[in-house]
């Protein structure tokens, strides 16, 4: 019983109708990282290759890992930027929603007062 791997994590809360499918981009990136790591380990264990060839192979895969990490870092920056841009809009919508709720409450109270006066006038 352990934590699920991050590639098995789902997006959203299904009880709220949100998507519960695994994130395919995250899964693809993790598979690439796992693949390159496995290749590095295999190159280190390969007894048939010369040490120079092992080093060349490992350097190649380490460079691939660096590229993958850079891509992931760029995606993180993109996501953070998107969130930063969305935050002010969310705050604005929250303020508008709060104002609408206040207005709704005031209108409901006025309507109840008017109904009460109308009922008293008819009696």
TrEMBL record:
Biased composition (Polar residues): 1-12
Start-end of Basic and acidic residues biased regions: 13-33
Name of the protein this chain belongs to: Uncharacterized protein
Organism name: Pleurodeles waltl
Organismal lineage: Eukaryota, Metazoa, Chordata, Craniata, Vertebrata
Superkingdom, natural source: Eukaryota
Disordered as annotated region, ranges: 1-33
């Amino acid at each position: 019983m352990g934590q699920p791997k991050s590639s098995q994590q789902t997006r959203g809360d299904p009880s709220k109708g949100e998507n519960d499918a695994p994130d395919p981009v995250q899964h693809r990136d993790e598979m690439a990282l796992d693949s390159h790591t496995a290749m590095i380990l295999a190159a280190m264990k390969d007894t048939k290759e010369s040490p120079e060839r092992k080093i060349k192979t490992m350097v190649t895969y380490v460079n691939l890992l660096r590229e993958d990490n850079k891509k992931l870092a760029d995606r993180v920056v993109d996501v953070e930027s998107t969130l930063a841009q969305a935050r002010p809009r969310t705050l604005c919508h929250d303020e508008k929603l709060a104002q609408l709720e206040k207005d709704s409450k005031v209108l409901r109270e006025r309507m109840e007062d008017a109904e009460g006066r109308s009922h008293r006038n008819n009696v």
